[in-house]
Amino acid sequence: MFIHWGLYSLAARHEWVKNRECLTDEEYKKYFDHFCPDLYDPKDWARRAKEAGMKYVVITSKHHEGFCLWDSLFTEYKVTNTPWGTDLLKPFVNAFRDEGLRVGFYYSLLDWHHPEYPVDSRHPQRDNHEFRKNDEQRDVLKYAAYMRNQVEELFTQYGEISSIWFDFSFPGKDGKGRDDWESQKLLDLVRELQPDILVNNRLDLPGTSDFETPEQFQPHEQPKDENGNPVAWEGCQTFSGSWGYHRDENTWKSVEQLLGMLIDGVSKNGNLLLNVGPTARGTFDQRVCDRLEGIGQWMIKNERSIYGCGAAPVGWLPPNECRYTWNSKTKRLYLHFLAWPFKYVSLSGLKDKVIYAQILHDASEVCFYKTEENGNGNFIPSPDDLVLELPILKPDISIPVIELFIGN
Ligand code: GLC
Q1: Angle of CA points 316, 322, 325, to nearest 5°
Q2: Are 105 and 61 in contact (CB under 8 A)?
Q3: Residue 7 CA to chain centroid, in angstroms?
Q4: Among 8, 104, 144, 267, which is 20 to 30 Å from 363 by CA?
């Protein structure tokens, strides 16, 4: 579970609202002055995440607006100075750990509030010439040092942090990249403080990250490095078209669509980081809860096709509208149906490889079609294919899965 939470949650119209509406610090201040998530209950969040099948969480310790969810010594722009008044991260980290989830932090490289952060093409004051003039007095290297100080706080006060999500670099004209962030120093510090951590790929330091982060799209195959070798990746996705809480955004994906994205990711060796934007009261919106519950219902019966699974062996190509996932330890192949076919499904190259097949959620046998016995003369499968006989009606589950036991 990804969590985007900050002052923008009050505006409730996208976490980039300060940028999109070119708001000044003065104009944005009302959100700071009214930040008071009185219904904040991280135990409830953690329980919901766990019940949806999530294994880890990543929260925005600081997003582009610059506001910090913890009591940082290096800024006054932090939760402890809002009406709420206390650190949000400690109870968060504890609640999620208690539910058995690992904890990661998102930390924004961009900062639209820090006084030493020079204006660039993404800054809310990019068109404000007066404001820009003061760039001469802004020193990005002081800002880079500030980031290291904060990262040190985050990585020494909250126990083991399993991943860090730096966001993001946009080198080139009017942009910022590794020289501005002093990315290498930042990375060295992270690895020194948390040797087992996984670091994402947005520091503008090619070849140093642990995973790629395709955002808001499903890659058509597993991403590769410059040498063509497949790399670890995690797709990050929203329920609707915003990361921060957006009251009036209505493109909410269905449970089935979200499950399809999860399955598609696993079938390409990827993870899914699915984002929740909690409200400024500290709650999950009902639209979020409904979807998390739907995903959880499916996971109870089908998690075997997800956990510990990855891409199927090369050459095993799934039928149309289907995805395979493969557990190499148990030697079980999972066939997911994004659309339900009529009566037969042919599995290319699997003839004589499968010793038993069942629908996963109710363990009901799926029979093999044998031309001699079941054939009507019109349907003659190709000799290398295994053909399964399916019920005419789609089983009563959003995405049906067939579990195939592969023999030696
Ligand atoms: C982006 C956006 C951002 C969001 C992030 C999540 O780069 O700037 O608002 O936090 O992606 O992947």
Answers
A1: 55
A2: yes
A3: 21
A4: 267
Q: 318, 385 in Cβ contact below 8 A?
A: no
DSSP string, 96-132: HHHTT-EEEEEEES--SS-TT----TTSTTTT-HHHH
Ligand 1 centre to CA of 328 (Å) is: 34
Tens-place pLDDT, residues 231-255: 999 999 999 999 999 999 999 999 9
Ligand 1 pocket member 357 (CB < 6 A): no
Sheet of 233-238: strand order equals: 198-199, 163-167, 102-108, 56-62, 2-3, 270-276, 233-238
Work out the average pLDDT over 20-38: 98
Atom of ligand 1 nearest to the CA of 216: 12
Q: Please tell me whether residue 376 adopts helix, strand or coil conformation.
A: coil
pLDDT score recorded for residue 377 = 67
For 43-74, write each residue's pLDDT tens digit: 999 999 999 999 999 999 999 999 999 999 99
How many residues are recorded in the chain?
A: 408
Residue 204 near ligand 1, beta carbon < 6 Å: no
Asked whether the whole model's pTM tops 0.90, one would answer yes
Q: What burial class does residue 293 get, using C-beta atoms within 10 Å of its C-beta: 0-12 exposed, 13-18 middle, 19+ buried?
A: middle
Q: Quick one: pLDDT at residue 159?
A: 98
Which of 386, 353, 354, 357 has its CA nearest to residue 369? 386
Alpha-carbon distance of 66 to 75, in angstroms, equals: 10
> How much is the pLDDT for 39?
98
Please report the domains of the chain, with CATH numbers, ordered by start residue.
2-305 (3.20.20.80), 322-406 (2.60.40.1180)
What spacing in Å lies between the alpha carbon of 158 and ligand 1's midpoint? 23
pLDDT in tens, 360-387: 999 999 999 987 766 666 778 888 999 9
Structure tokens at 7: 């002052």
Instruction: Give the mutation target among 243, 246, 274, 275 for probing the ligand 1 site: most ligand atoms within 8 A of CB.
Output: 243
Q: Provide DSSP, 207-263.
A: T--S-B--BSS--SS--B-TTS-B--EEEEEESSS-SS-BTT---PPPHHHHHHHHH
Q: Is the model's pLDDT at 170 over the cut of 90?
A: yes
Helix 140-156, helix 183-193: angle, nearest 10: 10
